[in-house]
Amino acid sequence: MKKKDEPHYKKVFPIEQQEEHKVSRRQFISFVGMGSLIAIALSWFKVNEKLFNSENKNGEFKAATTNEIPVGKSKNISHPETHKPIILIHLTQDNYVAYSQSCTHLMCPVHYNNTKQQLVCPCHEGYFDVKNGDVLKGPPPKPLPSYDVRIQGKNIYLG
Ligand code: FES
To answer: What value does the mean pLDDT of the chain take?
Structure first.
């Protein structure tokens, strides 16, 4: 076929069909070698993530750092696995408490009232004791589920 009669794609992409499937030994070895290196690197990262990640031992997870929440304030977080809302409250100097943020009545989010030392559900005026999560008033049928709080250095872990 003359160059002049060739279809346009042949001019733009001038590779003969026989050459399209030709892979040299060097290209094949290079491809397999790169694939192996990538697989080894991914495995290494996965193993080290498990070895050095102390944030998830015994079901614990890092919720915050101590300098994030001043005394009398709270922080809303999401459980890293269940994504359930949690409220973490800094009560006094070294005292933190954490509860499910979902009201035990109809799951509305509760918020912290520092002045009254209560967790308040605005939906139907449910009130919980901030020290233990017990129901103080309103329709909630049971206390707020709590989380264990552990402080290590500047990190706050919940479990
Ligand atoms: Fe909280 Fe009803 S949902 S009191």
So the answer is: 87
